[in-house]
């Protein structure tokens, strides 16, 4: 880790340049593979898709809205433009984030590593959830499946609440 004497705009938090750990690198690779797989699935499947595909799934996991096959490209766009790129950028500048406790010289490195790790996990989880949704949507559109499955909602909810909960627990202990 390299400590810079720089501070963020408010002058309160140290700006640290902390190298990625091995586990963070693996999570970054997993997220990138998910993005690439999403694009590959779309490129391979789009020409053979029917004109109408599911565009929304209800709580039961069954499709409840349909649209053009081109609308399916919205999901890779969301995955890349609203999840992968912003979370990758933010993870490079953890000192600009909002924290529920003070960030000091003593706890900055740990707090930054924890928030960066959480962002990486959220990014990878979200990208892979979108990849799964695209794959299942294509399966439904082609008549090979009837929906996302009944466990999808529970897995989705578990991931979106468990990852931040683990972060807050670990970050609270490290304050």
Q: What Rg do the Cα atoms give?
A: 19 Å
User: Which range best describes the helical content: under 10%, 10-25%, 25-40%, 40-55%, 55-70% or over 70%?
Assistant: 55-70%
Main beta sheet: 2 strands, antiparallel
State the helix count: 4
Shape summary: elongated
Question: What is the topology, as strand order, of the major beta sheet?
Answer: 1-2
* First-last Cα distance: 19 Å
Give me the secondary-structure category: alpha+beta
The average pLDDT score comes to 92
Order of helices and strands: EEHEEHHH
Strand content: 5-15%
Uncertain regions: pLDDT < 50 for 5+ in a row? 2-8
Q: Could you tell me the number of beta strands?
A: 4
Topology diagram in text:
Elements: E1 2-7, E2 14-17, H1 22-45, E3 52-57, E4 63-68, H2 74-92, H3 108-141, H4 152-173
Antiparallel strand pairs: 1-2, 3-4
Helix pairs in contact: 1-2, 1-3, 2-3, 3-4
Can you give a write-up of this model?
With 175 residues, the protein is α+β, with helices and mostly antiparallel strands. Helices cover 57% and strands 13% of the residues. It contains four helices and four strands. A two-stranded antiparallel ribbon has the order 1-2. Helix 1 runs antiparallel to helix 2 and helix 3 packs antiparallel against helix 4. It is elongated. It starts with a strand and ends with a helix. The model is unreliable at 2-8 (pLDDT under 50).
């Amino acid at each position: 880790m390299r400590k810079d004497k720089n501070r963020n705009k408010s002058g309160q938090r140290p700006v640290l340049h902390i190298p990625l750990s091995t586990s963070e690198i693996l999570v970054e690779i997993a997220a990138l593979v998910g993005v690439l797989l999403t694009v590959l699935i779309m490129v391979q499947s789009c020409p053979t898709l029917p004109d109408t595909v599911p565009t929304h799934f209800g709580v039961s996991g069954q499709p409840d809205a349909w649209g053009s096959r081109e609308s399916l490209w919205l999901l890779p766009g969301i995955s890349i433009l609203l999840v992968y790129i912003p979370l990758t950028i933010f993870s490079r500048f953890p000192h600009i984030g909002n924290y529920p406790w003070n960030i000091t010289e003593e706890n900055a490195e740990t707090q930054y590593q924890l928030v960066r790790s959480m962002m990486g996990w959220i990014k990878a989880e979200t990208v892979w959830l979108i990849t799964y949704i695209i794959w299942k949507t294509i399966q439904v559109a082609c008549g090979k499946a009837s929906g996302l499955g009944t466990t999808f909602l529970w897995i989705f909810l578990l991931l979106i609440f468990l990852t931040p909960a683990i972060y807050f627990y670990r970050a609270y202990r490290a304050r």
